[in-house]
Amino acid sequence: MNNRLQAILSKVCLKEKEADLVMKNARILDVFTGSIYSGDVAVSQGYIAGIGEYRGKKEIDAKGQFLVPGFIDAHLHLESTMVTPHELITLAALKGTTCFIVDPHEACNVSGKEGIDYILQQSEKSSANVFVMLPSCVPSTEIDDNGAVFSAEDMKEYLENPRILGLGEVMDDYSVIHREKKMMEKLSLFSRHVIDGHAPFLPKEDLQAYALNGIQTDHEAVDFDYALEQIRAGMHIHIREGSAARNLEALVKGILAHKMDTRAFSFCTDDKHIEDIIREGHISHAVRKAIALGLPTCSAYQMATINTAECYGLSQLGAIAVGRQADFLLISDLENVEITAVYHKGKKVVESEHLSIPRCPSKLKKTVHLSPLKERAFRLPISKQEVNVIAMEEGQITTKRLQVMLKRCSNFTGEKYPEYQKIAVVERHKGSGKIGRGICQGYGIHGGAIASSVSHDSHNLIVIGDNDRDMCLAVNELIRLQGGFVLVQGGKVYDSLALPIMGLMCDCGFIEANAHLENMKQKAHEMGVPGGMDPFISLSFLALPVIPEIRITPRGLCLVQNGRPRLIQ
C-alpha cells in the first residue's frame, strides 16, 4: 500500500473524509481472535478504512448478517474446470472465493510460456485476486512426452511480476531429495518465495529431506497420519476437496481426533470440474463440509481465509481489518455458509459483469498434431500369462498395481474380459507416433469408449473402452475437434464437448459447458462407470506418472515407487 492510499484511508478512518461504502449493522467474524462482534465497516478505494460507526456515500444495511473475509483457494489448476479463466473466476467468486492461487502447469505443459501468459492475461481484470505459482516440473518427469520445457532460465522473466508468488507444486520429489542440478537451480531461484510441494507417501526421512530443501506446502495428504508427519516437518497442509480427490473428511476427522490446532491447514480444490462448483460450491463447500463434520465454525473459516493468506504472505487479504482489501462475504447462516452477497475491492460481484478479456491466440487453438489413426493402433497382444493392471481406487487419484493371470492372445479387449478395460495414451504434441497401451480395472465402461485430451500432466490423448473400434473412433474425433471429451457407443459418437483452447478449455460459457458435461457424465454412468466416480477427471489422472502406484504414458506402463517413476512391461 502506497503512502497516498494510506493518507486517504487514514482520513476516512478518522472521519475526516466520507467512505465510499459502509456496510452497516454487520456481525463481523474476526479471524484473528476467533470472535464475532458488531460494527460498521467503512470502505474506501477498495480497502477497509475503519470499523466502528461510520457514514458513507453508499450505505448497505447488513441487517445483522455475518460479514466474513472472502475465501482463498490455496492451490488449483483452473484449466481443470475446462472453461476459460474468466468464466471460472466469475462462477467461483459468486460462490464466495475472492482469491485464487493458481498453478498453470496444465497450460504450460501444452504451450509453455505462451500458456502461462494466457492465464495471466485472461485473469488480470477479473472479479477476484488471481496469483500464480510458476510451474516447477514441465515436463513432470523425463519419461513422459509433453509439449514444452519450462526451465529455471525461462522462469527468470516472471520473477518481478507481483502476481507471481513462488514456485508451483514440485512433483519430482526424487530430484529434490537427491539435490539434482536442474531442480536445485529452480529451488535456489525461489529461495525467498513460497515453494509448493507434491509429495504423496514419502518415507519419513525422504519427507524431511524434501522439506529441508525448501518445500513448504503440500496438498497430497490423503490420511491424517501422513499429514501429521508433514506438519512435523514444518509444512503447511492444503486440504484438498476437488472432484476426483476428496481428502477433507479423513483429514478433518484426524484433526478432531487429535485435537489439533488448525493454523497449519488451508483448503484447496486442486482440480474441480465446473459442474461440481455449480452444484456444491467452491471453497464454500469445504467450509460447509468441515463444519458438518464437527470442526469449530471459526476454525473452518480461518482455514479458508487467514491461514492461506499468511502462508503465502498476502498481508492485504484474509481478514476484515483496517488496511486489508475489501473482499468480504455477507452470510446469513455461518454453519451452512449461506452467502447472500460477495464483494471484491468493495464492489459487489455480479454474474452479468462484462469485462474486456483478451482473445485467445490462434496458436493455442491448434495443439493436437496428429493424423487420424487406424484401429490396429490399439492392438494389445498378451504374450505372457501374468500381466500388470492399473487398479483404480474410488474417491482417490492413487492407483494400485495388480498382477493378474490372463490367457495369451493376439489382442486383449474388454469384451473378452468384462472385469477389465483397455486403456491407451497417444502422444499428441509432436506427432511422434508413440502409443502406450495397457489394462485397467475399476472404470467399468462397456459397449463403447471415452476419450479425452485432458490427461495430467502432459495432456496427451487418453482413451479407455472395451473394444478397439470405438476407442479408435473416439480418438479420431478428438483429433478433429482439436481436443475435448468424446463418448462413443456402438460404433457411433454419442456426444462430445470440444476443448479447443490447448485441448484443455472450451470457449463457451460455464452454463452451457455444465449442461453438456452433465449429459455426458450421465451417459458414462449408464455405460458402467461407477456412480461415485467422475468419468473425466478420474480418467485424466491415470496418465500422471508422479502419483503412486501405476500409470500409463505414451511410452507404456509406468510404476511409481519411492518418488521415482520407471517404465515396466
What does this structure look like?
The mean pLDDT is 95. This protein folds into 2 domains: 70-311, Metal-dependent hydrolases (TIM Barrel), CATH 3.20.20.140; 380-567, no CATH class. The strands form 5 sheets. Strands 1, 2, 3, 4, 5, 14, 15 and 16 form an 8-stranded mixed beta sheet that branches. Helix 3 packs across helix 4 and helix 12 (283-292) packs antiparallel against helix 13. The chain contains 17 helices and 27 strands. The radius of gyration is 24 Å and the shape is globular. With 569 residues, the chain is of the alpha/beta class. The chain is 27% helix and 28% strand. Strand 17 (386-392) and strand 18 form a beta hairpin.
What's the CATH topology label of the largest domain?
TIM Barrel
State the CATH architecture of the largest domain: Alpha-Beta Barrel
What gyration radius follows from the Cα positions, in whole Å? Answer: 24 Å
Report the helical percentage. Answer: 25-40%
| CATH homologous superfamily descriptor of the largest domain | Metal-dependent hydrolases
End-to-end span in angstroms?
58 Å
| Shape annotation | globular
Low-confidence stretches: none
The domain tally reads 2
Extended strand count: 27
Average pLDDT figure = 95
Q: Please summarize the sheet with the most strands.
A: 8 strands, mixed
**Could you name the CATH class of the largest domain?**
Alpha Beta
The total count of helices amounts to 17
Sheet/helix structural class: alpha/beta
Strand content: 25-35%
